[in-house]
Amino acid sequence: MAALRESDVARETYRHLRMILVALAAFLLIGSIFGLVFFGKFEGSISANYLGPLRDVFVAALVGIAVCLVAYRGRTLEDFALNLAGFYALFVAFVPTDLDDTLRGIEDPAIREEMVNGIRVSTSSVLVAALVLVIAEKMTGNWPGDAIGSKPVRAKALYRLSWPFAVLFVGLVVYRIWEGEEFAWIHYAATFLLIISMSVAVACNGWPKAAGEDDLTDQPLYKAIAVGMTLGGIVVLAVAYWLFRGYHVAIAEWWEVGLFLVFWVRETFRNWDSPARAKKAAEAAAGAV
């Protein structure tokens, strides 16, 4: 009975984790819509909410999403990509878009210093927390990179390719924390790397053999989503710039969020009983011995 209860707890925890991420994205969208209703303005990008009345909604939603992405345990390369996505999402949340222009526009030195120090504290905290988490993952044998060695060449290549970008990004953050004048490029770099990391996570399910995993029934859908998040995102941004200039970034961002949510919801239904299935597989393997 104890084992059954543990399985039930694992299953319900898994389900809630996946559902919470969807709820947080919905929370962000609903907040944006309510912002239009109450303030008469729909921001030109999701990130622009940081400097507006919906700052708390924006930051809370992104931090929650980041935690869900890191906490979720996917297949090896997918798990690593989602960890990176969660890491980058925190910098999208804590470092607002066009912060350099905002800081230059603040005439009161005390207010400017307070804002700079606040961002220094938040970004430094993320770096330290990420380092502690990586060390803990390595010590407990849960670091996805440890299992990459047994994966195909393309999976290893993606894993290794991600590290220079991550190191360069961390270097940029450290430099901006030390420099403390503009924090330029942090937000845009984090946004770009977040989208790429989410796309890689989806692609791992669209081309599972390349990631060293078993085939899935929904591979065509996931391939379409991965392409839509990369090449499709560029097309959507260009078309939106032509037709809805001023809101083109927001349209492209919601396009990316929407596609990832389609993937996430479909995977949630497909793996609804994942912990239970894992337990049954383990019991079957034990019985066969």
From TrEMBL:
The keyword Membrane applies. The chain crosses the membrane at residues 20-42, 54-73, 80-97, 117-136, 157-178, 184-208, 220-241, 247-265. Keywords: Membrane, Transmembrane, Transmembrane helix. This is Uncharacterized protein.
